[in-house]
Amino acid sequence: MTNGHGGQHVVLSGCSGGGGTSTLLAELASRGFGTVEEPGRKIVQQELNGAGVALPWVALEAFSRRAIDMATGDRNRVASSQGWVFFDRGLLDAAIALEHATGLAASVSLSGHAHFHHQVFLTPPWPEIHQRDSERQQNLKDGIAEYHRLIEAFDWLGYDLVILPKRKVEARADFILSALA
Predict the structure, then answer these.
(1) What is the dihedral of CA 32, 36, 41, 42, to 10 degrees?
(2) Would you list the DSSP string of 116-157?
(3) According to a count of CB atoms within 10 Å of the terminal CB, is the N or C end of the chain lower?
(4) Where do the coiled-coil regions begin and end (predicted)?
């Protein structure tokens, strides 16, 4: 991977619907930081309004490939941003999902992409806030399995994992900003 502007591009990750990354992203945006929403949710919304062929619970490979394309576009859009930019899941998660679906190593999917900030902030599964809806259909058991895959993959890709404490969103945002200082 190349270095590019990745030093200030920070990944927030965790299991779908069970860690609070979207709420955390909104908190960071409210503090004036650049943010990029999760591509997966946008894809699911589009698919539910269309043919539904690239839903993660229908065709994980097709979904992951679309997420990689969308996340690449999102990253290019903010490439010249100044300061921290926080990504809700995105490119790394999509490459890891594609690896899970096909066996294609995430490092291959990420080849040629700029490395993100070395710290990846991971929200652990939090049963008390886990939500399923029409766009997030993953149950908590599958979310926990995904969380463990993410831990292994981020480590293998050379990122330093920072597990976020289960606290109110404001305290989590403070924790991240303190870790980045």
Answers:
(1) 110
(2) --SEEEEEPP-TTT----SS----HHHHHHHHHHHHHHHHHT
(3) C
(4) none
Q: CA-CA distance, 152 to 97, in Å (whole number)?
A: 12
How many other C-beta atoms are found inside a 10 Å radius of the C-beta of residue 156?
13
Annotated domain spans of the chain = 6-180
Whole-number Å distance between alpha carbons of 124 and 42? 22
The pTM score is 0.87
Name which of 86, 162, 94, 91 is nearest 124 in CA terms: 162
**Terminus-to-terminus CA distance in the chain, angstroms?**
25
Q: Confidence class of residue 138 from pLDDT cuts 50, 70 and 90?
A: low
The pLDDT assigned to 57 comes to: 80
CATH number for the domain formed by residue range(s) 6-180:
3.40.50.300
What's the number of CA atoms in the CB half-sphere (13 Å) around residue 176?
31
DSSP state of 163: E
CA separation, residue 77 to residues 74, 85, 158, 180 (Å): 5, 11, 25, 23
